[in-house]
Fold:
Amino acid sequence: LVSRKKKPENTIIDVKGVKIGDGSQQFVFGPCSVESYEQVATVAAAVKAKGFKLLRGGAYKPRTSPYDFQGLGLEGLKILKRVADEYDMAVISEIVTPNDIETAVDYLDVIQIGARNMQNFELLKAAGAVNKPILLKRGLSATIEEFINAAEYIMSQGNGQIILCERGIRTYEKATRNTLDISAVPILKQETHLPVMVDVTHSTGRRDLLLPTAKAAIAIGADGVMAEVHPDPAVALSDNAQQMDLKQFDEFVSSLRSSAFVQI
Ligand code: PEP
Ligand code: MN
Structure:
């Protein structure tokens, strides 16, 4: 169902009026984790001031260590919804179990399925049964074929509103947290009719690489880019090495806007 052979024209996902997949370039910014109302609202104000409407923030955090911050859970979803309402923005956040899908539908504009759950088939099926856009991330070690099959799981249940997100894969290379598979973007766009985004934060794990990889993503035809922004990354409860602070965010957006092929 996700195959371009089945449906030649692009699928366009409408998130509160923001169209993803229509040829425009869309951006998702926000903190790694939702930590407090003030923290999310501060980022939302900065993101909105630049003219962007899509805000991210993790409430259920799938952490490698059980001793790391696990997220605020439902409280985090409530904070996101409050900020979305107050700032007229659309919010994206991850859930990690099918039990949370109905709650997520009430609080979120886009439900994220993270890399670690790309093959959580029960979660994929649950996501396929709701009427809400799903942002599906590529698994840590997933081939493109496995990634496409994960999207097929969702669509086979009836939900065709899927955004694919390349977020880097595990390779032997240690210079970056993961290896951004930039060629996945045109391959996914050839093989499927779904919009494709690139998460530059989790793929690189390096603040100094966010701008060049975002430019590369746009240049190669991605429908959007995701990057993490935090008011004070040094004290962030997760991913403090790669989130941008507000000044870096400002510079990031200005640099993108001065790139010839970026239209934002
Ligand atoms: C995230 O976007 O918060 C996240 C955990 O990303 P990934 O699933 O790609 O690691
Ligand atoms: Mn993160």
Q: What stands out?
A: The two ends are 31 Å apart (CA to CA). Residues 74-87 form the longest helix (14 residues). The chain has a mean pLDDT of 97.
